[in-house]
Amino acid sequence: MVPSETRTAEAGPVGRSPGQLIWRRFRRDRVGVISGFVVLFFFVVGLCAPLISKLYGKDPYTRYGQIEPGLLNGFGYPVKPNGGIDGEFWFGLEPFLGRDVFTQLLYGIRTSLLIALAVTVLATLTGILLGIAAGYLGGRWDFLISRFIDLLMAFPQQLFFVAFLPIVATLFVDPREETPTWVRVVSIVVVLWVLGWMTLGRILRGATLALREREFVEAAKVSGASPWRVIRKELLPNVVSPVLVQATYMLPNFVTTAAALSFLGVGLVEPTPDWGRMFAIGAEVYEADITYMFFPGVSMVIFVVAFNLLGDSVRDAFDPKSGRR
Amino acid sequence: MLRFLLRRSLGAVAILLIISAVTFFLFYAIPRNPALLACGKSCTPDQLAIVERNLGIDDPVPVQYWDYMTGIFAGRDFPAGDCPAPCLGYSFTNNQPVLDTILDRLPTTVSLTLGGAVVFLTLGLAFGMLAAWHRGTLLDKTMSSASLVLSSLQIYFIGPLALAVFVYNDGDFHLFSQPEYVPFTEDPGGWFAGLLLPWLVLSTIFTANYTRMARAELIEQLQEDHVRTARAKGMSRSTVFFRYAWRGSLIPVVTIFGIDLGSLFGGAMITEVTFTLPGLGRLAVDSVTQSNLPMLMGVMLFAALMIVLFNILVDACYALIDPRVRLA
Predict the structure, then answer these.
(1) Contact criterion met (CB < 8 Å) for A265 and B303
(2) Given an 8 Å threshold on Cβ–Cβ distance, is A162 in contact with B267?
């Protein structure tokens, strides 16, 4: 850090690429850096869930409470206070089944982030493709894509998710057979993806519409660049900022929506550990054991807050004029 | 105004027709056979044929769709009985007309939505104005941080939490009575008491969002040239704030409010499930778990109708708020 500063002073003004400027602005934003670390922490936890649970010595499937006597009482609730939290079960035990809450949460975060990440990538690519196509091609394509976006926006979102999840699943397997877990995951991804890309698509359509008339795009066209080259070399670099900002807002949204689906009972089913289904279990046992819900709930609030703050910081880093007011 | 309404209504009808067709074909065409879903896991071919005939799905899907649509406009006959004009078919599970069930559940959803909307719109706008007025002070910073955290909460987390703390605690004192739906016409007091906690939980997240939005919009408006001019010619801060900035910030707020109301009227699913209120959202979730396709189709159409209806209302409101907007 310090040597580069002195070198700058000696060599006079140094040219910096936009990327470097953005990175410098982001690094100076303390809230942004901290929330970036928090978000990173969640991804590391999700990624390393098998490793952590190996070190910790438990897994999210074993019904410890039913195997070892003295952990759950006659009603199926943890004997120890606060949901059975102790040195052995850090976040307590699940009532009735007696599974370990800590590893359940680790693996649940892993599943949820995997799903949300997949949906974010798919939705972002779709938004870029259709948004830029509408804005750049214009005319009939623009009309078609814009009306398509209008139509999808008129769909009742939650209802659509809840209603079509089982239907998408029957695309892959016969409804009479047991649905495998990967089919459920793919169905959730597909359903969230279909209604997840429109906001980005709309923003990119507008941005491309404005960029299309700029001189550098016209210059590229006049010098004989193919449409594909214009899109790749002239348009895409100029829409990186809205794409990244929207993607950071999208991901926590997909996490909470997927969790809501599990809560409503149409998402992932037992025994796959899932962040959202922990709320469904929590809603059944809260009268006697509110502690069970505490860890998934608080961790989700922290995750969403950190991600939203990160989104604001990314936006500020890319566009200092927009600044947090 | 009349031409605007006519044009937008035609557009809405077109969108509803497409949504109905898409929903219908996905429901009835893609899962190879809805009778399989309705018939259950151990289903013989003979049973299947009976179920298909009872459900009225032994015709090809386009014919079924045509029957369904004519049913909505002209009514149709069912083995279960006659179904007059806006006919949405019969429930697969209890053979009740779908429309009756929807109308039966509607008051719960409407009560929940209207009460919640009153709370979050008033509080959200008030907090947003307060924060914008005291911009940069400790009050503003506290409110902004609080609204950031509150808007990141989830109903399926704070709902059970609130129930455990306020309703099902071990002590003698219960701040709220058990959430339930009592029709307003029967017992206004019970209606209010039963819905109070769902209203507050539903509006916690919305209030936080509206506070953030109202604050941002007001601050943006306060930086406009016309606001500076008004201040420069001697108008007081409060007059400028309420007469110019507030009015200018209304358009985005009204837009979001319309969208939120439209989707809530189609069923506040998570709130209704959390507090076991018998509204449209619960109806939809139950129909999915029971594979009750006609019911789901009906709720879907109703929810889509609400969304397009409120879109039109929002656009009509623009003209009332902003005199520059001419509807045509």
Answers:
(1) no
(2) no
d(CA A87, CA B326): 68
pLDDT digits (tens, 9 = 90+) for A267-282: 888 888 899 899 998 8
CA distance B164 to chain A (A): 6
Spatial CA neighbour of B132 closest among B34, B210, B30? B210
Q: What is the C-alpha to C-alpha distance for residues A127 and A8, in angstroms, rounded to an integer?
A: 40
Q: Is B18 helix (H, G, I), strand (E, B) or coil?
A: helix
How far apart CA A99 and CA B68 sit, in angstroms, is: 48
Of B31, B154, B220, the CB nearest to A170: B31
Nearest residue, CB atoms, B27 vs list A167, A256, A276? A167
How far apart are the two ends of chain A, measured CA to CA in Å?
29
What whole-number distance in Å separates Cα of residue A255 and Cα of residue A262? 11
Pairwise CB contact (< 8 Å): A151 & B299: no
Contacts of B307 in chain A (CB under 8 A): 154-156
Is A325's CB within 8 Å of B311's CB? Answer: no
Interface confidence (ipTM) of the complex:
0.84
Q: Which whole-number Å values give the CA distances from B235 to B84, B217, B226, in the listed order? A: 62, 21, 12
pLDDT tens digits for range A129-170: 999 999 998 889 999 999 899 889 888 888 889 888 888 887
Q: Which residues of A touch B245 (CB under 8 A)?
A: none
- Beta strands B81-83 and B76-78 are antiparallel
Buried b vs exposed e over B129-165: b needs ≥16 C-beta within 10 Å? bebbbeeeeeebeebbeebbebbbbbbbbbbbbbbbe
Nearest-CB residue to B296 (from A163, A287, A305): A163
Q: How close B283 comes to chain A (CA, Å)? A: 11
Interchain pair A308, B148: CB under 8 A: yes
Considering the entire predicted model, what is its pTM? Answer: 0.87
For the segment B246-292, what is each residue's pLDDT rounded down to a tens digit? 888 888 888 899 989 988 988 789 999 999 999 999 999 988 887 77
- Low-confidence stretches of chain A (pLDDT < 70) are 1-12, 175-176, 321-325
pLDDT of residue A5: 47
Is A286 within 8 Å of B160 when comparing Cβ atoms? Answer: yes
A275-285 helix and A291-318 helix, angle to the nearest 10 degrees: 140
Q: How far apart are CA B63 and CA B214, in angstroms?
A: 50
> Quick one: which of A126, A264, A245 has its CA closest to A188?
A264
